[in-house]
Predict the 3D structure of the following.
Amino acid sequence: MSNYAMDVDVAKVGCPVPKIDEVKKELLISMNELYARGLKTSCQWSSDLLLSLEVGNNPKPLTKKIEGYKRPKITRSLLTPVPKRMLVAKSTDLYSIDQLPIPYKEMEFYLHARTCYNAKEYQRASFWLKNCSSKIPLFLKMYSDYLAADSNIKNIGSEATPSMFKEYRNLLNYLSQLLESIRQKKKGDGYLTYLLGVVYVKLEQYEAAVKMLVESINEVPLNWHAWMQLGDLIVDRVKLSKLELPNHWMKNFFYCQKYLDLQLNEQMLGMTQYLFNCGFSDSIFLQSRVAVCYHNKRYIEIAVQKFQELIEIEPCRLENMDTYSNLLYVQHQRVELAYLAQRAVKIDKYRVETCCILGNYYSLHGEHQKAMRYFHRALKLNPLYLAAWTLLGQEYMELKNSNDAIQSYSKALEINKYEYRAWYGLGQTYEILGMFKHSLYFFKQAQLLRPFDSRMIIAVGNVYEKLGNIDMAFQSYLKGRAMGDDEKLGLIYLAKLYVVINRPNDAAKMFLEYIEEHGLDEQTRDHSYAYMFLANYNLNRMNYDQAFHYAQKCLNYAETKEEAKALLKTIVHERIHMEIDNLLSTPMSEKQSKDKDYDKEEMPRQLELLSLTQKNEMNQNEDDDDDDDDDNSDEEEQLCNKITMYMEIVDEELYIER
């Protein structure tokens, strides 16, 4: 367990969940309030949670018709008018206008302003609410002012002038003073306090923002907007443990999200299991977080299965599908990724998730410029989109653009310093640049965040080896192997390190294990290195059959093909010399006693294999200068004489047998 790990104890960090029917009533009331104030994300989150409830803590029954029930037929006379009946709205009716605490004289202005707000015409909405003073219209007016200014400055982007930023900041200061005045006079509510916290965030007054958001959550705990804004400010595990939150069941969902953000995957799964047991087992929010958690834990097959289940439950949902596209990218599943990209474009091609999916699709096909275009488009839609910054850094590395890659990874860390992929990417970038001390620092930061990830540990070991610290490299490789070594990088690095420290027997053992575990995927540079080492290793120990076998494997790789040809010559020559010397030095009586154990066709078969491997090369070199032939004529003549003596001895043995 990591040094940062925190055991899940619901009594300490969470809160017991009340009966589900009480939760349902609370959600219905809250949804009405959220929708009235234009907090659409919170309202949608609450509605998703409402769908997952199991009323009465019993399993949700299957949808079926009630036996013996028939819907009565209603017949109406055309001559008899049906009297109109006024529907009395209950306290839990969703979007019931007559239940909103808005004065009658402000209701018409509020309704018109909300239609403008829904059309994202924020300035119009604010204009029609300028004379309203009740809490809901006042919140919608001030929230519209904030959104109008914020969206305007985002749309302008890099073209914004200093005067525009000054005007934007002046508006924020005006809103903060007005909201603080309302709060001091105790004329506001939890939603206005939440808006004050959001404004403080934009003004970079983070301590005041945390205070206001916690106060807002105490007053209106079902505003998921406030929880998420608070979560963005709590980016440290120590601060999370010291945070004083209300004793409300929504705190459990907040901890689920923060555990996931802070890479506390085991704690997140524990809290999720508790909520599943409390009746939220069908929550799409929780199921999607579990899928992302398995992605973080590198349980790729399980994560893919979880995402596929989410797609079956809600096919048009795009949230977290960018993470699913990362999994398909890692597994090189082009067909599935193409299908996901096509479906995302049909749903909404202007969502950041869609842009990320398309970026991964083009990157997998080697079209890195197109991939970068879509990642930039995602960042234009949301400059704080963490995944796009990290993936953009990877694309820059593919194009050998180290400077822009470093900037992208650094921007990702500014957004979330617990993004281990950005730390790891910076380590790789500086390693390529040859700045190994910088690379070691970044890899160690990634290892602190992912203490059980073998990739981080092995990356640290590889840099230690390049820095000449063989002992630390050796320890890191062994630790990486103990952690599972999913990609088998530790195995090949450890084998190469054994070669460096002159332990050939251990190196051969590691290379053999590597080849056995990667038998289905042999088209890598590491395989060619392993085969060449094993060929030389067996040649030095006069295991000519094994040496010949591994040398032939090396012919399949461009980087070792020429060396393998020369090695095959050496193996056959040494084998012939050894056999001839043994036959010449062995008495005739011993030759006859070993007739049955000696394979007389073995050497001709080796010679035939050698001739086949050399045939093309001999045809290409038949027009070479005669000087090279003269230089090697003496050696070839001596070899031919020995082969002739060998064949005469074989014929003599055959004659004796007859």
